[in-house]
Amino acid sequence: MTTILISGANKGLGRETARRLVELGHDVWVGARDPAAGRAAADELGARFVALDVTDDASVAAARATVADAGGLDVLVNNAGISATRRPVLDTDPAEMVDLLATNVIGPVRLTLAFRDLLDASPAPVVVNVSSSLASLSQTATDGSGQSAYDGLDYPTSKSALNMVTLKLARALPRYRVNAVCPGFTATALNDFEGHRTVEQGAEVIVRAATLGPDGPTGEYFDDQGAVAW
């Protein structure tokens, strides 16, 4: 059994990932900004709750102390993310983009660095960054692809930056398994439930990455079908 912390785990992909990992016998922390929703989800899933706002240093420090006092951490799933009002590229709102980058990019960096000492103590530390196919530069550069057709700038940019964070952390932490995963266009509140995949389908690749052993891949970007082109 490993101890796993999932940010943004009170709903959507985070919640389904927590459910699956609890079902597999792991000790799971549900991290959430909303204490009522987080506790309710944790109680229902048989997990533990920790208050966690990835954009707030004090919140992250308090969460780290709580998890440390309970015994440590083996796996960190950086799932918490937000979307912005979808606008054509040339109508991008820079202020909205700042908020989005603070959650989707700086948040995972903040969380990973804050929990690094606990992960260092694990025999098989793992970090999973929940990315998107919209992060793919090569697919975005391919005419006719869904990524190329997507007309927003800010969300894809944040996930591309998260992919770079993944690569840099994987090289800086060679004993870890650090990967970016793409759950596909999953129906969640992030996209007003427009996605064509279920949370059960979307969570599959997150669970797979969270349960990698020390011989598993690192510094990779994949979905449930295999490697995704950077």
Strand percentage lies at: 5-15%
Which strand order spans the largest sheet, edge to edge or round the barrel? 3-2-1-4-5-6-7-8
What is the typical, i.e. mean, pLDDT?
Answer: 94
List the total number of helices. Answer: 9
Overall body shape: globular
Judged by helices, strands and strand pairing, the structural class is: alpha/beta
Q: What percent of the residues sit in helical stretches (DSSP H or I)?
A: 40-55%
Radius of gyration: 16 Å
Major β-sheet profile: 8 strands, mixed
| Cα distance spanning the termini | 32 Å
Strand tally = 8
Query: Low-confidence parts lasting 5 or more residues at pLDDT below 50?
Result: none
Order of helix and strand elements from N to C terminus: EHEHEHEHHEHHHEHEE
Verbal overview:
By secondary structure, the protein is α/β, with parallel strands linked by helices. Helices cover 44% and strands 14% of the residues. It contains 9 helices and 8 strands. It has an 8-stranded mixed beta sheet, with helices on both faces. Helix 2 (35-45) links the parallel strand 2 (27-32) and strand 3 (48-51). Helix 1 (12-23) packs across helix 9 and helix 4 packs parallel to helix 8 (154-172). The two termini are 32 Å apart.
